[in-house]
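Worked problem 6 (solution included).
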Amino acid sequence: MDFKLKPSDLVVVLVTPQGDANVGAVARSMSCFGVRELVLVSPRRPPGEETYNWAVHGKKVLDRCRTVATLGEALTDVNLSLGLTRRSGKRRHRLSSSRAAAERILPRYLPARVGLVFGNEESGLSRADLDLCHRRVQIPTHPEHGSLNLAHAVTVMLYELLGRGRPTASFKAARPASPSARAGMLAEMRAGLSATGYPAHGDPLEEEMGKLSDILNRAALEDWEVNFLLGIVHHLKSRAVNFSQIRQVETEQEANSGQLSEA
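Solution. The predicted structure is:
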């Protein structure tokens, strides 16, 4: 049975966070992904006014956040802990990317309570902190400036674990136009082109319509797109008829004017 990670399965752990603004921004990001549980390990101070100002709609995350003395205490009931680190070294050479953590590591543990562990803004996680985590994860960045802001790193990981597979709010399943709708549209286009004398270069109209049909079939048009194109065709046909009528009147007037001049 396939299990999916739920926002309620996640806990974000910040180890000795230093910046009030960063903690608030982390709470805001968590709220955006539906994650509600934040644990602060030995923070410089508890969330204050500035932290709440930066949290915006994530204030409820701060209201319920827990403060503990050690990382071990924060991970007591966690089944899978992912420690985020940027640096490589003798004991950090086996790193998983953020994408690999989401696609290959996480599924093997589910259902589970998952902890995302982040170090402080200056030095990150210590070796001892990383030793307490089940897996070490790195967010791939440019080597010249590889260190992400704390809140940005949290956002990337929440997106990888929760956001990537979600449809956008405006997502609607495509509804391909039916063969009869496409055929009707092509018939309308053929009639309009024929009325204007297309093609002028002498090739048969049927040959040109075959090319147009191929183009439209590759486009895999939906119902609304067929209707949209039909609206354009109908408009152009009406303008073409009006233009033809105007030209006919002008031609008749010119002929009458020439006859009067001769008389």
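Discussion: The chain has two domains: 7-163, 179-262.
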